[in-house]
Amino acid sequence: MRDYKHIEVTPITGILGAEIAGVDLTQTVSDAALMEIEQAFGDHAVIVFRDQAMGFEDQKRFTRMFGEFGFEPYVKTMPDHPEIIEVIKEASESGMLNFGGNWHSDWSFQEAPPRATILHAKDIPPYGGDTAFANMYAAYETLSQGMRDMLDGLNVVHSARRPYGTEAKLFGREKRAMTIINSEEAHAEQVHPAVRTVPETGRKALFINPVYAIRFENMTERESRPLLDFLNTHATRIELTCRVRWQVNTLVMWDNRCVQHNAMNDYDGFRRQLHRTTVAGERPYLAERGGNGGMARSPAEAAAG
User: Where are the beta strands (DSSP E) in 108-220?
Assistant: First the structure.
């Protein structure tokens, strides 16, 4: 267990997630505390802060501490705060699918998907609406050596066409609190490695998900489906997950590069509202194993020799 001096860190499970106390995110966070938050983020991939009565500017300031804002392509953002998406399901939207209600990694169809997602809870049902998270480091590491070797040489085609394409039916056509933007641009395809290296940790993570990963490069969807189905089921086994129960003013941040998440849709008849920002990320890559003690190197390090 790492020794923290400026924050308190309590793991949620032995595989993923931690709650962090001892810091007020409505105030300026010291450099020392921020360094420890980054360490906890690298160690646990999902970090939870309770009782943070944050406004819009507080959340935006917190997000900027970790990088630039990510780009939100297919969901309407707040008019006065284009960096923020209001994730809302109204009490009247009973029987409808919810936003984020399937295992996925945010915007993996982008050339450089988000490094992190940050959600701040505003209005929470009395029960239900938890978010589950799956550890994609562990998903990769618990595969056989033969499967890992094969996946290290594969690329995956990602696309937003299923939920956001012009013919998408995932969200239906009912009137909703959230405005989904269906677009021809969502049919574009982006190729990423099936296994990616997270620069800060040097660890390999499986980088697939059932919403946006549609096939392996140079294979058909039909040919790809059996292996993708196996990997998606393997990655979300209960022993590789944690689950966060929301409370008003809870803030959760997770690493999209090594985590999938799933918003539980079990609160019909109640309102749920959260504010979402994302931190811009890098283009996914799988680092080569070099002569530096087996540590993975980024493309910049490899180029520099």
Answer: 116-123, 131-135, 155-159, 189-193, 195-197, 204-206, 213-216
Q: Write out the catalytic residue numbers.
A: 104, 106, 261, 276
Angstrom distance (rounded) from CA 206 to CA 135: 9
The answer to whether residues 70 and 279 touch, using CB atoms and an 8 Å cutoff, is yes
Q: How many Å apart are CA 172 and CA 65, to the nearest integer?
A: 37
Residue given tokens 């994302």 in the structure block = 278
The share of the chain scoring above pLDDT 70, in percent, equals 92
State whether residue 82 is helix, strand or coil.
Answer: coil
Among residues 222, 207, 220, the alpha carbon closest in space to that of 155 is found at 207
Sheet with 116-123, side-by-side order of all strands: 8-11, 18-21, 46-49, 251-255, 116-123, 272-279, 85-89
- pLDDT tens column, 178-203: 999 999 999 999 999 999 999 999 99
Output b/e per residue, 202-240; b: 16+ Cβ within 10 A: ebbbbbbbbbbbbbbeebeeeebeebbeebbebbbeeeb
Taking only the tens place, the pLDDT of each residue in 227-257 is 999 999 999 999 999 999 999 999 999 999 9
Kindly state the tokens that stand for 191.
């190729």
Query: Is pLDDT of 122 > 60?
Result: yes
Residue type, 220: T
Question: Strand, helix or coil at 11?
Answer: strand
Three-state SS at 212: coil
Please give the Cα distance from 138 to 126 (Å, whole number).
32
* Band of residue 289 on the pLDDT scale cut at 50, 70, 90: low
Q: Which two tokens stand for residue 225?
A: 């489906």
Taking the C-alpha atoms of residue 78 and residue 277, their distance in angstroms, rounded to an integer, is 11
| Whole-angstrom distance, CA of residue 239 vs CA of residue 223 | 29
Long-range contacts: 22-27, Cβ < 8 Å, 24+? 23/49, 24/52, 25/49, 25/52, 25/54, 25/58, 25/62, 25/251, 26/52, 26/53, 26/54, 26/55, 26/58
